[in-house]
Amino acid sequence: MSIDLVAAALWIDMEPRRKLVLIALCERADLQTGMCWPGRKEIAARSSITERWVTNHMKALEDDGYMATVHKSSGRAGDTSRRKLNVGRILKEGEDRREQLQMARYKPEDETSPSFANQGTLTTEPGDVSAKPGDVDVGVERGHLGRREVLIA
Question: If you write DSSP's letter for every residue of 81-117 in order, what string do you get?
Answer without folding.
Answer: -EEEE-HHHHHHHHHHHHHHHHHHHTPPPPTTSHHHH
